[in-house]
Each structure stands twice: as C-alpha cells, then as structure tokens.
Amino acid sequence: MKANVNFQRPHYSLIALLFAARAFPCQSAEPLKAVSPEGSKAGEERTAVGLKLCWCPAGTFLMGSPRGEPGHRADEEQVKVKLTRGFWMSKYEVTQGQWLSVMGKLPGELTDAGS
Fold this sequence. Notes:
Elements: H1 10-23, E1 45-48, E2 51-56, E3 59-63, E4 79-83, E5 87-90, H2 96-103
Antiparallel strand pairs: 1-2, 2-5, 3-4
C-alpha cells in the first residue's frame, strides 16, 4: 500500500524535519559552491530530501496566545522560549510518504485523507 496521504499531526512534521535537516545535507542551486548546514537569515529557503525547508534561527520569542487574542482560553499562558541553535523546518505539511522516505516507517497506522 502506498503512503501518499497527509499526516495531520504537526508535531510529527517537526520531528521528521528536524531529523531530515540533521541527517541529510542541503542541496544548493549552485552545486559547486560549498553550502553551510546553517541558514544565514530567518526564513531562508532550501530544498533537502525533496522537501522545501525554511531556516529558523536561534533566539528568544514568546510562544502562545496573548490574553487579548480572539479565541484565547483562560488556561493558556505565554511562555518565553529560548532556542540555543537554529534548525530547518518544512515550509509545508509533511505527507506520510515523505515521512516514510526520511524515517523509514510511520509512528502509527496509515490514515485516510481527511480523517
């Protein structure tokens, strides 16, 4: 059975792409030029293992919904996050097929599209 439907759990996407970014070198539009494994600015795009990735640099930010935001829940709080090093993240959701090509197996059963 082919694994070609979207895997709808974003945290699996992040895990797969962090693995992909570390395990495989990035491809460059200029193959003869040396390519740094790190990006040079936030949002820089590269393609690696067939996935379009964006650079997320080290730094600090507030994660979570601010109190005044529509849809904010009373049990939500913002948290200060510090990233000590940058990483590459997919620009788009990762499909089950892409997950399989990087990780070798799915973390669970195959799902139908939209379920």
